């Protein structure tokens, strides 16, 4: 059974805080199973966005973990990330948006392995 999204988000924010990274929920989604989008602001008006990994990348031995992929190979203008998040919320109002600020761009997420 997968951990409730609200609990996962709380744990993620504690993990960020313990590393000295500010993080906050900018949109609270469905408590049980909302998708989570992580915005990492780099403090230079650019940001990176991490989105839920496609189901095809999940390992059958660990189907309940949360994996993410980067939406873009490099950070982009923060306003473009914000626009993408607005579109995501129009499509899925149950999604969670978590924003962090870190000049180093640390995200503290489990990333999906690249598909060959």
TrEMBL record:
> What is this protein's record name?
DUF1491 family protein
What does the organism's lineage look like at the top? Bacteria, Pseudomonadati, Pseudomonadota, Alphaproteobacteria, Hyphomicrobiales
């Amino acid at each position: 059974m997968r951990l409730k999204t609200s609990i996962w988000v709380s744990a993620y924010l504690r993990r960020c805080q313990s590393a000295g990274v500010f993080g906050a929920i900018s949109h609270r989604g469905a408590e049980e199973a909302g998708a989570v989008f992580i915005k990492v602001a780099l403090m230079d008006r650019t940001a990176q966005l991490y989105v839920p990994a496609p189901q095809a990348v999940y390992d059958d031995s660990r189907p309940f973990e949360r994996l993410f992929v980067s939406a873009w190979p490099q950070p982009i203008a923060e306003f473009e990330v914000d626009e993408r998040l607005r579109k995501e919320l129009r499509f899925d109002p149950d999604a969670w948006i978590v924003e962090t600020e870190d000049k180093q761009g640390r995200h503290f997420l489990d990333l999906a392995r690249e598909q060959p």
